[in-house]
């Protein structure tokens, strides 16, 4: 079993693992099959509260979106809640869809970077190396999920928030692209902590800021290569789907469909 | 050539002396300066002098002659990212009784009594976009001197290893080559030096 596989191989083998009843033991996994970090988003549980958005903003030193930036359509948020209305006024319903970097296995943003600032690492993260970025914005143009953000200005914070910045995350300057990292600093810290106590990173050890902040546990983070992880469970659910699946990007973020007993097939076509 | 001449200013002898010669001298100086910078950069020479510390602390005495382990003063290297600069209290562990009559030690006592920290000058600094953690390297049994040089022989500590990305990568690559390559069964495991950008670039 090779540790590096294509998107289709990996999802196929994942399915086979569960369907065939053969599973990788904990020892085998410790021996180094590596990780494939992923997230599941249960749309049924999401209330659109924006706690994930604020948590991400704080954890990752994302600049504050002032009103002017929003009207200029230059607002940045690594995770955003898209709101879709269904029905007409008295019976209107809002549906929420948290959208973050999907860490695609076949990412459209990666091959277009002339500076190798963005690449796919061995744990399936779509990594952005900030000090290598030269700001061509090719990647942002290629991203079908619009989750890459360009810094048109140097970020500024009010004096009262000077000491708020997270030392584990770079403050991005003008002229480079930034995006969700799955809180790679937390992944690395969990790995170091595990190494200190001579263990391995277990399911639930790592939670990115958004996952930690989610009050309804709509967001779950984990290892897709671990068949027992919560996120693998979600990925194998009947309700699982990927955003813009037809683009073939192979995202690592799995969405779970809304459970709506009153929904009909026709009402689902009125999104947006 | 005729076109070129039309664009170039025609200099008389006197103008040539006043403009031409300084221009050549300045230009030459610039080129030489750049060349020196490039050569220094390529050879990896750290020309930065040792900063002057507020107290003439002698590493060659403490770490060298007395053989005090680095971790005795720089606590936390094995449990956290930063190798801490010892607090005044830490100095006072010994210097409340040892050599209290010397001028340099009196500075510590004064700092301790007036409750003011000593403003040590920083010697080694990683860029802001680098996530360096001491604990991982101590765990991997890397000697302090690998990056910090023979501190036990230095009266005043200065940076001797050019801590740029090449230095990090050369060591990570040599320590083990297991962490890169498509057929590698241990992509990023606890006992390998990772080669992944996201490990160090934050």
What tags apply to this protein structure?
heterodimer; A: 272 residues; four-stranded mixed beta sheet; two-stranded antiparallel ribbon; 10 strands; 22% helix; globular; B: 202 residues; mainly alpha
The percentage helix of chain A is: 10-25%
Gap from first CA to last CA of chain B: 55 Å
Unreliable residue runs of chain A: 1-22, 27-31, 267-272
Structural class of chain A: alpha+beta
Question: Averaged pLDDT of chain A, please?
Answer: 84
Shape of chain A: globular
Number of helices of chain B: 10
**Global morphology of chain B:** flat
Q: Quote the beta fraction of chain A.
A: 15-25%
Our Rg estimate of chain A from Cα atoms comes to 19 Å
Q: How many helices of chain A in DSSP terms? A: 8
Model description:
The complex is a heterodimer of chains A (272) and B (202). Chain A is α+β, with helices and mostly antiparallel strands. Chain A contains 8 helices and 10 strands. A 4-stranded mixed beta sheet of chain A has the order 8-1-10-9. Chain A has a two-stranded antiparallel sheet with strand order 2-3. In chain A, strand 2 and strand 3 form a beta hairpin. Chain A is globular. The N terminus and C terminus of chain A are likely disordered. Chain B has a domain of 33 residues. Chain B contains 10 helices and no strands. In chain B, helix 5 packs across helix 6. The relative contact order of chain B is 0.11. The interface between A and B is medium-sized, with 31 and 24 residues.
């Amino acid at each position: 079993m090779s540790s590096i596989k294509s998107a289709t191989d990996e999802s196929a083998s994942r399915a086979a693992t569960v369907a065939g009843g053969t599973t990788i033991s904990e020892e085998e996994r410790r021996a180094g099959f590596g990780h494939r970090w992923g997230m599941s988003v249960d749309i049924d549980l999401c209330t659109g509260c924006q706690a994930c958005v604020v948590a991400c903003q704080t954890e990752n030193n994302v600049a504050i979106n002032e009103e002017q930036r929003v009207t200029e359509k230059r607002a940045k948020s690594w995770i955003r809640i898209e709101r879709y209305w269904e029905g007409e006024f008295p019976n209107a319903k809002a549906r929420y869809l948290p959208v973050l970097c999907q860490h695609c296995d076949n990412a459209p943003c990666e091959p277009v970077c002339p500076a190798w600032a963005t690449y796919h690492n061995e744990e399936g993260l779509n990594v952005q190396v900030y000090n290598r970025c030269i700001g061509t914005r090719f990647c942002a143009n290629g991203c079908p999920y619009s989750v890459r953000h360009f810094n048109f200005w140097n970020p500024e914070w009010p004096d009262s928030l000077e000491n708020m910045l997270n030392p584990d995350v770079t403050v991005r300057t003008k002229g480079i692209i930034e995006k969700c990292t799955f809180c790679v600093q937390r992944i690395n810290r969990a790995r170091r902590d595990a190494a200190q106590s001579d263990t391995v990173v277990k399911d639930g050890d790592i939670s990115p800021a958004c996952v930690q902040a989610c009050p309804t546990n709509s967001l779950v983070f984990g290892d897709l290569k671990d068949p027992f992880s919560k996120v693998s469970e979600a990925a194998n659910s009947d309700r699982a789907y990927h955003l813009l699946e037809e683009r073939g990007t192979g995202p690592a973020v799995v969405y779970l469909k809304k459970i709506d007993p009153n929904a009909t097939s026709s009402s689902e076509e009125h999104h947006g | 050539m005729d076109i070129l001449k039309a664009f170039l200013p025609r200099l008389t002898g006197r103008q040539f002396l006043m403009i031409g010669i300084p221009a050549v001298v300045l230009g030459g100086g610039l080129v030489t300066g750049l060349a020196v910078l490039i050569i220094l950069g390529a050879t990896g020479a750290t020309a930065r002098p040792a900063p002057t510390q507020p107290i003439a602390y002698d590493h060659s005495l403490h770490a060298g002659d007395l053989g005090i382990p680095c971790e005795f003063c720089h606590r936390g290297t094995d449990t956290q990212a930063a190798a801490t600069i010892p607090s005044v209290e830490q100095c006072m562990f010994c210097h409340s009784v040892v050599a209290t009559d010397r001028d340099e030690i009196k500075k510590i006592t004064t700092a301790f009594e007036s409750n003011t920290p000593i403003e040590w000058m920083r010697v080694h600094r990683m860029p802001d976009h680098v996530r360096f953690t001491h604990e991982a390297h101590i765990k991997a049994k890397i000697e302090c001197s690998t990056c910090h040089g023979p501190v036990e022989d230095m009266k005043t500590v200065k940076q001797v290893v050019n801590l740029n990305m090449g230095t990090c990568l050369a060591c990570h690559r040599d320590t083990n080559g297991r962490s890169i390559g498509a057929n590698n069964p241990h992509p990023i495991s606890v006992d390998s030096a990772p080669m992944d950008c996201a490990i160090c670039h934050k």
